[in-house]
Amino acid sequence: MPISMTINGKAIQAKEGMSVLDACWANGVSIPTLCHHPDLTPMGACRLCVVEVEKMRGLVASCTLPVSEGMVVHTETPKVVEERKFVLEMLLSDHPNDCMTCEADGNCELQNAVYQYQVPWKPHKGKTHSYPVDGDPNPFVFTDFNKCILCTRCVRACAEIQGRNVWGVANRGFRDKIVAGADVTMLEAGCESCGACAAYCPTGALTDKSSRGSGRAYQMKKVTTTCVYCGVGCQFDLNVKGGKVVKISSNAKAAVNGMALCVKGRYGYNFIHHKDRLTKPLIKKDGAFVESTWDEALTLVAQKFAEAKGDSFAVLASAKATNEENYLIQKFARAVMGTNSVDHCARL
Ligand code: SF4
Ligand code: SF4
Ligand code: SF4
Questions:
Q1: Into which CATH architecture does domain 3-90 fall?
Q2: Closest Cα to atom 2, ligand 3: which residue?
Q3: Full-prediction pTM beyond 0.90?
Q4: Pocket flag, ligand 2, residue 20 (CB < 6 Å)
């Protein structure tokens, strides 16, 4: 049964079980969030998504509030804006004024919210945290908890997406902090270096180590592609700058894997521009490989294929290739080479 409600004076229909935040987003009403991510269990921790709901007392976090029939919601009243500015001021009071050199600049949800509500950064005279930068020896994830806003997205991403439960929140009050296991290193706590926590972190607290300093998000062209490491077929975005792949980032629209990737898919891209890679075809002449031109190599391959037509030819396709490539391989075998001897490494 659809639920009829009103958002900012506009009548809308929402689905039962939706949160007010989901209903707003589905109807083009923008509400800022920090702790919320559509892939993760809602927490209502950051209080940035607060709204006013008629007949309800105070401001309510829209991410954890279910829609109900006849609900009347206001998302940008002076009271709401004042509360959001206060939340952001509080976060900035214990946050380094570091955007210019921060890896997350241009891709930081805290920065975006602060910009949207024009909250100035002021030096804070009270107590602030001081954590070691790059304090964890993990080879792939760079930690700077001075930029952590305790949104717990990393905790939920590691537990709910990767199933590793590496991160947790230790202590209480001002001493609250994100820790791996019982405050040990990430690897000691069972981390698989999948990078999901960095992908979901809304600030520069957790970032990818291997691409640090390689460019701003807005300087990189994103090219969606399919991973070649295994047969799962995960998709992600190659981040290309100056004609080189400098980083890999999750693509939330990837049908198979969403934002999830394994350590190889996310961080194993250095081979792309490795100096040892073959850039010219080699032909074996008198027992040794000799550099050749593409014209010469392709002519030789075509000639050998022509000689091998029929049942002396077989193809072994690969789970590491895409469905489309595997389709072409079998089509080539049957239609061009005249053989049905087609097999696949993942058949058994
Ligand atoms: S985490 Fe975001 S707000 Fe904080 S310094 Fe980096 S870019 Fe700026
Ligand atoms: S890298 Fe992956 S396994 Fe390691 S802490 Fe982050 S989410 Fe968990
Ligand atoms: S490290 Fe990032 S994701 Fe984790 S709580 Fe801090 S800001 Fe949130």
A1: Roll (3.10)
A2: 201
A3: yes
A4: no
pLDDT in tens, 70-93: 999 999 999 999 999 999 999 999
Task: Identify the DSSP state of 120.
Answer: P
Q: Assess whether the C-beta atom of 333 lies below 6 angstroms from ligand 3.
A: no
C-alpha closest to that of 251 among 223, 271, 230? 223
* Residue indicated by tokens 């997205």: 153
Angle, CA of 38, 155 and 16, to the nearest 5°? 30
Indicate the domain borders of the chain: 3-90, 123-273, 282-344
Residue 252 CB coordination number (10 Å)? 12
Q: Which of 193, 206, 248 to mutate to test the pocket of ligand 2 (most atoms within 8 A of CB)?
A: 193
* Separation CA 269–CA 41 (nearest Å): 31
Give residue 1's pLDDT.
Answer: 82
Q: Which helix (H) or strand (E) holds 283?
A: strand 282-285
Residues 128 and 134: their CA atoms lie apart, in Å, by 18
User: Is 206 near ligand 2, meaning CB less than 6 Å away?
Assistant: no
Distance 70 CA to ligand 3 centre (A): 36
Q: How far is the CA of 96 from the centre of ligand 1 (A)?
A: 8
> What is the third-level CATH fold of 123-273?
Alpha-Beta Plaits (3.30.70)
What parts of the chain have a pLDDT lower than 70? 348
Probe ligand 2: pick from 154, 165, 197, max atoms within 8 Å of CB?
Answer: 197
